[in-house]
């Protein structure tokens, strides 16, 4: 395989790794994350990474003889995306699931994000509608519905879940906005600076909830398993996961990046099977095959004309 072709595969491999990390994270949170209040968990998750991220950013800029410079409007954008991620996506997902179920969360909270992203991209004329996209996106969404419809609490819509389902759909809209907004930044600045600013803004937005709901007695009641869950989510699922995610996003664009979200039900089922000893039903086998087929179709599409900002000298050094 030629080096040029190999380089083109790296962003795709990056997204597969990201969703493997996030799939394992769902199992981790099932084991230890239930001990935590959602807002406290996410607040600590973002805050715990800030010292490490800023130390790395400092040495990155120093080693490359760079000066930290970012336009004020881009600071506002990246900080807004950090708050959107922490409060509007992560915390809202956990809140919405109190009024709906995990199957609806997989379909409405995550599954509709690529659909919304492609609609926005088509309206903005950033992508062209090809037969691969026309077939691949609906196939992926239908396959996710198959995966989560096999259990007693499978995907369904009704009055009993309406409040949560509306919030889950809103979460998908926010996810699409996050992808498109971050795609404007990853071509202009080093990822280490963007991740540091994003996580700092997210942590500060959740800090009041941490101070309000947690005290010394709360923390001492958390078991070792709960702390391991927090450490995994902070370092691997969030710091490493979002770094690889945004690096790959800069090379694939928001549409192809969002399509990889359909891998999550598949990557979550595998660690659930080996670690939690959950069964994998025929629905999941069929749906998983459908997801992989859809991913192949979407990622093989070559007719997209994504408008991208030229890479800056700083980004070229990554």
Structure characterization notes:
It comes from Paenibacillus sedimenti. Residues 15-148, 162-298 form the EamA domain. The chain crosses the membrane at residues 12-31, 43-63, 75-97, 103-124, 131-154, 166-186, 193-212, 224-247, 259-276, 282-298. This protein is an all-alpha fold. It has one domain. Helix content is 75%, strand content 0%. The protein contains 14 helices and no strands. Helix 4 (72-96) packs across helix 9 and helix 6 packs across helix 8 (162-185). 45% of the residues are buried.
Q: How would you sum up this structure in a few lines?
A:
This protein has helices at about 5-30, 40-45, 50-65, 70-95, 100-110, 115-125, 130-145, 160-185, 190-215, 215-220, 225-260, 265-275, 280-300, 315. It is an all-alpha fold and about 325 residues long.
């Amino acid at each position: 395989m030629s080096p040029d072709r190999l380089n083109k595969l790296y962003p795709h491999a990056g997204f597969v790794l990201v969703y493997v990390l996030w799939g394992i994270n769902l199992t981790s949170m099932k084991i230890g994350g239930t001990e935590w209040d959602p807002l406290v968990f996410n607040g600590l998750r973002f805050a715990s990474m800030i010292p490490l991220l800023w130390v790395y950013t400092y040495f990155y800029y120093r080693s490359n003889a760079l000066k930290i410079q970012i336009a004020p409007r881009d600071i506002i954008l990246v900080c807004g995306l950090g708050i959107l991620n922490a409060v509007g996506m992560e915390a809202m997902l956990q809140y919405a699931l109190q009024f709906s179920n995990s199957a609806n969360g997989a379909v409405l909270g995550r599954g509709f994000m690529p659909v919304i992203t492609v609609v926005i991209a088509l309206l903005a004329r950033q992508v062209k509608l090809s037969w691969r996209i026309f077939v691949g996106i609906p196939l992926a969404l239908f396959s996710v519905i198959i995966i989560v419809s096999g259990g007693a609490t499978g995907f369904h819509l009704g009055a009993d879940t309406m409040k949560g389902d509306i919030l889950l759909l809103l979460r998908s809209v926010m996810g699409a906005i996050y992808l498109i907004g971050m795609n404007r930044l990853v071509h202009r600045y080093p990822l280490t600076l963007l991740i540091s600013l994003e996580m700092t803004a997210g942590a500060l937005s959740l800090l009041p909830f941490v101070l309000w709901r947690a005290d010394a007695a709360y923390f001492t009641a958390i078991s070792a398993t709960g702390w391991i869950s927090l450490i995994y989510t902070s370092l691997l699922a969030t710091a490493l996961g979002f770094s690889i995610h945004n690096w790959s996003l800069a090379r694939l664009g928001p549409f192809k990046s969002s399509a990889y979200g359909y891998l999550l039900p598949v990557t979550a089922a595998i660690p659930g099977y080996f670690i939690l000893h959950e069964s994998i039903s025929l629905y999941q086998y069929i749906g998983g095959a459908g997801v992989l087929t859809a991913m192949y179709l979407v990622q093989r599409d070559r007719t997209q004309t994504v408008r991208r900002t030229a890479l800056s000298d700083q980004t070229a050094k990554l």
